[in-house]
Amino acid sequence: MLKIGIVIASVREGRNGKQVGDWTYNYATTEKAEEASYELVDLKDYDLPLLGLQPTQEQGAAIKAWSEKMASFDGYVFVTPEYNRALPGAFKNALDYLQPELNNKAVGYVAYGGLGGLSSIQTLRLINAEQELASVRTMVTFSIMADFVNMSEFKPNDYHKDNANKMFDQVIAWSKALKTIRG
C-alpha cells in the first residue's frame, strides 16, 4: 500500500496550519483510505538549524529524523501558508536538507492565504521540480478571508472537497506510477 505524508509546513506560533493539516488528513483517511495510508508530519516537531550552520547534537538528530521520515513516503501533500508571496522560510530550509529522499515521488498542494496561497504553490513547484518531485495539477486553496472566521478559525467551504478528491486521486496515481521506477 502506498504511504503518503501530509506535511504541515508552518512553524509559526498561532499558525492556522495545524487546522488545515488536520482537515487534509481527516479528508484523506475518510475518503481515500482504501488507496493509501496517510501520516501527518508537522515540521514544528523537527528543530532544524539553518542549512550551512553547524548543528548541535540535538539538531543533527533532528536532521536525520526529518530525512528518514521524508524518505519513508511514496508521495506527499504539502500544507502551506503563503507568507509575503512565498512559502514559509522554515519550510524552504527544511526542503533544502532533502534531495534523494524526494526523487521520483509525487506531491500535491494544499495552501491558504489572502489569495489562497497560490504564490506559495508557484514557488514550491519550482523548488520541487529541482528536487525531482512531480507536482500534480489539482491543488486545494483556502482563502484566509472566506474559509476562516476572523482569519483564525478554520471553517472551509464544502466546494473544496471536489478539488481535494481530484488532488488525492492524482497524487495516488502518480505515486503508484513513480514507485515502479524507484524499484
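The above is record 1. Record 2 follows with the same two-line structure.
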Amino acid sequence: MPWDGPRAIVIEHRAHAPGHVALALPAARVLLAGDMLSDREVPLLDLDAADPVGDYRDGLAALERGIRTWDVRVVVPGHGAPVRGRAGIDALIAADRSYLADLERAARDPSAEGAGSGSGSAQDPRLVDPWVAGEHRRQLAHLSRVAGRSTGQHDDRL
C-alpha cells in the first residue's frame, strides 16, 4: 500500500480477531493499538478461536515486544484515551492480563467469588459500562461452557 507518512511497523496477531493488527510508529514512539489496551473496554476475545484467551495473551505479548523494541511512549487504543508514559502503558497491559486470569479462573470454577458478575474482576472499572459488562458475561458463559466440556461437567444454568 502506498504510504507517504512516517515508517509504520505492522504488528499482526490473533488477540481480538484473526489478522488483527497494531501499528508502531517508531519515529514518533507511538503504538496505534487497534481494539486493544483500552481503558474503557475489557479484552474482547475472538470466541470462535480454539484458544481465545491464549490468543489474547499472545497478542498482548506481541504488543509488549513492539513497545519495548521501538521504545513506545504513547499508546492510542481504538476505544478510550491515549496513554502517555511507560507506567501508564504497563498498567494497561497488567489490567488486561489480570482480567484474563480472573476470567479463566471464573470459567473453570463457577462457584468462585464474583464469577457471575465480575469473575473476580468486579473491581475492574471497565465493567461499570453496561455494554462492556454484557460482553464480559457473554465471554464468561462461553468459556464456562468450553471448560465444562473439557472437564466432562455440564451446567444447565448457562
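The first strand starts at residue 9 and ends at 13.
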